[in-house]
Amino acid sequence: MAGALEQAMRYYPYVFHPITVVGGGTLLLVYDEWDRQDATRSTLWRRIAGFLGAGLLALVPTVAYFGVVGANPIQATVGNDWTMDALVAAGLFIGGATTWYLWRRFDWGSIVPGAMVALVAVTVPYSLLSPFWNISGHVIISLMPVLYVVLVARRYWPLLAVPVVMVPNRIVLDAHTWAQSIGGFLVAATITIGLYWRQNDRSLRPNPATTTLLD
What is the distance, to the nearest Å, from the Cα of residue 169 to the centroid of all Cα atoms in its chain? Predict the structure, then answer.
C-alpha cells in the first residue's frame, strides 16, 4: 500500500501539472461564462481558439531561452531553478495578458478577464521570491485557477482536492519544505480571494454575471 501511494505521489505532479490545471481551469471558466450568455456555439469555439492561441504565445519565453542558450529542456526542468521559474512566470504573464485582451477586445464577458488578472498577479510574488526562497510554484499555479473557478461557481468545489494534495506532494518528493509549500498556498489563496472580492463588488458570493455578448 505504501509503495502504491509513493508511486501515485511520484506521478501526481505530471498528471496534474500546474500548466495543465491552468489550462483546464480556464477552459472551464470559458465554458461556464459562455453557458450563462445567449451566445452561439460558434462563439464558444472562437473563445477556446483564442485562449489556446494565447497559450501558445505563453511558450515563447521558454522556447526562446532554450533556442539561445542551447540547454537541454529535460535536464533544465529537473530540480529547482529560479531561471525556469522566471520563464514560467513570464509565459503565464503573456498568456494571461493576451487572454484578457481578447476578452476585452471582443467583449466576451468579465469572468475570464478577472481570472486572468488573478493569474498574472500570482506570478509576481512567485517570480520575485524564487531567486531567494524556493516557494512552490506547483502549489501556487495549481491553486489559483481552481480556487477562482470555485469562487465563481461553488459546485466545482471538489476540484480543490487537486491543489490541496499538491501541498504534501511537494514534501513527499523532497521538492520543497512545508514552509515553501504552505507559503505558496497562502500566497495564491490570499491574492486570488482578494482580487475576486474586489472584482465581485467586495463580495465572495458566486459570480452572477450573465452578460449577453454576441459577436
Answer: 18
Say if CB 196 and CB 204 are below 8 A apart: yes
HEC string of the chain?
CHHHHHHHHHHHHHHCCHHHHHHHHHHHHHHHHHHCCCCCHHHHHHHHHHHHHHHHHHCHHHHHHHHHHCCCHHHHCCCCCHHHHHHHHHHHHHHHHHHHHHHHHCCCCCHHHHHHHHHHHHHHHHHHHCCCCCCCHHHHHHHHHHHHHHHHCHHHHHHHHHHHHHHHHHHHCCCCCHHHHHHHHHHHHHHHHHHHHHHCCCCCCCCCCCCCCCC
Region of 202 on the Ramachandran plot (φ > 0 left; ψ -120 to 50 alpha; else beta)? left
pLDDT on residue 191: 98
Which residues, in sequence order, are CB contacts of 88 under 8 Å at separation 6+? Answer: 19, 62, 137, 141
In the block, cell 464577458 appears at 109
pLDDT of residue 202: 93
Residues of the chain with pLDDT under 70: 1-2, 69-80, 209-215
Q: Is 41 helix (H, G, I), strand (E, B) or coil?
A: helix
Residue found by looking up cell 522566471 in the block: 86
Determine which helix (DSSP H) or strand (DSSP E) holds 152, and give its type and residue range.
Answer: helix 137-152
**Neighbouring C-beta atoms of residue 83, cutoff 10 Å:** 13
